[in-house]
Amino acid sequence: MSTAEPLATTPLKVAVLGCGTVGTEVVRLLTDSADDLRARIGRPLELIGIAVRRAGRERPGIDPALLTTDAEKLVSSGADLVIEVIGGIEPARNLILTALKNGASVVTANKALLAQDGSTLFAAAEEAGVDLYFEAAVAGAIPIIRPLRESLVGDEITAVIGIVNGTTNFILDKMDTSGAGFAETLTEAQDLGYAEPDPTADIEGFDAAAKAAILSSLAFHTRVTSADVYREGITDVTSTDIASAKAMGCVVKAVAICQLTGPDANGERAVSVRTHPAMIPRHHPLASVGGAYNAVFVESKSAGRLMFYGPGAGGPPTASAVLGDVVTVARNRLRGAAGPGESSYAARPISSIDTVITRYHLSLEVTDVAGVLATIANCFADHGVSIQTVRQQGRGADAQLVIVTHPAPDAALSATVESLRELDVVVEVTSVMRVEGE
Amino acid sequence: MSTAEPLATTPLKVAVLGCGTVGTEVVRLLTDSADDLRARIGRPLELIGIAVRRAGRERPGIDPALLTTDAEKLVSSGADLVIEVIGGIEPARNLILTALKNGASVVTANKALLAQDGSTLFAAAEEAGVDLYFEAAVAGAIPIIRPLRESLVGDEITAVIGIVNGTTNFILDKMDTSGAGFAETLTEAQDLGYAEPDPTADIEGFDAAAKAAILSSLAFHTRVTSADVYREGITDVTSTDIASAKAMGCVVKAVAICQLTGPDANGERAVSVRTHPAMIPRHHPLASVGGAYNAVFVESKSAGRLMFYGPGAGGPPTASAVLGDVVTVARNRLRGAAGPGESSYAARPISSIDTVITRYHLSLEVTDVAGVLATIANCFADHGVSIQTVRQQGRGADAQLVIVTHPAPDAALSATVESLRELDVVVEVTSVMRVEGE
């Protein structure tokens, strides 16, 4: 303490909403790291209450006197900082709005809410002259919000490609190493605690879509909501897809892709945002992201290609991101300042998935390879889709064609798939997957 | 522009000091991206002057009317923001101090100055109530300063290990793939523009040491200067070292290592900072960082292991980092705020290299392997150093022993090497290198 000035002693009042995995860890850190936090902020933090749904539950290490079921009262009781880790839309949304209106700065990890109605929250924060920070909402402890919102704000970001859902990455990684199918691997992930009992938000891509909306809003200075994000889950990924990917030097990953497209003939640029499983070349930095880890790859005009990697979920990593925001927001408050607000001036249009230029990998079961290749090639040509490679597997009744296309508009590719399904020589289109990251 | 309020029109005045590779690119971006910068800041930026050493030189794309050789006058002429990209200690130091005293916020890429005398600059910024930002000082475009200073400020960082010098990484990577020696590879790097005509700052580790000082100051809330950093360059790395590393599944990298050590018997923790070549296991995330790329690996208590990767140098990437700071600092200025200042409250002691616990890889030329192993093993045991593996290469007069130790204090390891050199059975200690990253 030799170099520090005497610390001001009036504490900043902190209210915590939610006391699940993340909330418990946040409360623990606020207590255990109190001295360091005070030194870093310049003032002590005082925890004034923790809002929970059920008061009676046993919560080891948490002072029961701090617990309350009246969250509405807690956010109106003069807190300087409100930490929201309840998740979901309501009551989180109304509690945050009440907190902001009462002059509290808010730190939240709530990706679903930010992706659905971030603008309302940002407007309320702006009006009250307080902060709304949310580093924990995307990719857990990996600093990605601040880099996009501040470090790269002088640059032109052209793409953000992320593995932002640990559950689906864990499942796909397991399928890749074990050769097992989706359902079996999901059960294993649930047993190990890597997937929720109701895994819908993860495996159907809702969680990744929310994160993609947040990332693209920041990267492209444009309001993007979850409804703008094209979404496909991983439930249809088969062990055959994964084996096919291996055969072409790729790995299957659930990716969130945010791209600045164009300029078109009128000089207009648009935003394309989607999340779906995709085949990624094994030499791509994202390909080696294993287990429940997350990674975000950013391409920008001047900075070039950057990658951010780390644990994407879990109590302590998420709490680390929350606490970083708490210190920043507390410092801002003591200086009478506020950090960056919403930046949506570019207001770029959102592209339909139809116009996105991508590549497809297809597996077709066909009647006989030698006789049908010309018919199939014509079908691709009719839709203006160029074939990059064709590989034959098996013979006669078991004949399979594996086709990888050149980049083409997604609409042309899906129309090709529709037409292929109607061909007599095609028994079944067994797999269709986008190829990304080249 | 549909959602934006009418923009205020009074410009913020910007002065640029230095017009080399980075400065030229900064000026170009200030001009080409003026509309975006205005929208992101909320005010236009007005470039009021560029200080250069020689006025007569041809500078394509730069308005000659902006050039001045009177930098002192430029920083005293009412600039809101001063961008310093001259580098070196003087005149940069005095110009920055003058700018701060005159109420300008400063954005700098000057690692040498920050590592030598950062505290003076921070104190001047604090006194004037303005900002001192320096994202470009370490690892080019990779956001690492802001993540350490803000995102992870609620966590306890225990280690930062970085490949922070692109020149040495390029040389070692080339030596690894080509099998060529150091001198030859340096010449090649110079021909390709990856190494300076005078490469001392890079190959002797001065550049990496400055960056290590900055990173450890931020990570450990302690003043660390370049003088505190233990430093070894890469000039003694041989193709034999690189082949030895390969044989044990490692790669040789020049690393900057910042560690929080302890707690010792008195509960004290210290800071250890060093830069030197080291053998890194090929499966470590830093091992695959190739060419002139940089990467920084961070370990912290709650967040776990994070990695940041990207281009570490060059005009456009460095300018991207500078412009990100310019926007942040300009926004702060319009809100009457300032970002984080120096945080050195922890004031931890700096460990001597002697006490650092590390591992050594040694190659010894010995008279005859069978007869001498016991003598050599005794020599290690006498210094309390435990051997992990011994590998024999060649026979008789060409006999080589390759030894890897268990972790031990550096002083014990270097004393062992001294004793080995005095043994009759040891013809030569041909290589000594630390093994890191496990």
Automatic annotation (TrEMBL), chains A, B:
InterPro entries from the UniProt entry: ACT-like_dom_sf, ACT_dom, Asp/hSer_DH_NAD-bd, HDH, HDH_cat, HDH_CS, NAD(P)-bd_dom_sf
The EC number(s) this enzyme carries: 1.1.1.3
**Protein name stated in the entry:** Homoserine dehydrogenase
Q: For this protein, what reaction is catalysed?
A: L-homoserine + NADP(+) = L-aspartate 4-semialdehyde + NADPH + H(+); L-homoserine + NAD(+) = L-aspartate 4-semialdehyde + NADH + H(+)
UniProt pathway annotation: Amino-acid biosynthesis; L-threonine biosynthesis; L-threonine from L-aspartate: step 3/5; Amino-acid biosynthesis; L-methionine biosynthesis via de novo pathway; L-homoserine from L-aspartate: step 3/3
Top-level division of the source organism's lineage: Bacteria
What this protein is reported to do is described as: Catalyzes the conversion of L-aspartate-beta-semialdehyde (L-Asa) to L-homoserine (L-Hse), the third step in the biosynthesis of threonine and methionine from aspartate.
Q: Which residues form a coiled coil?
A: none
Q: Which residues bind NADPH?
A: 111
Q: Pfam families, from UniProt?
A: ACT, Homoserine_dh, NAD_binding_3
**Residues engaged in binding NADP(+):** 17-24
Q: Which residues form the ACT domain?
A: 361-434
- Supply the alphabetized keyword list: Amino-acid biosynthesis, Methionine biosynthesis, NADP, Oxidoreductase, Sodium, Threonine biosynthesis
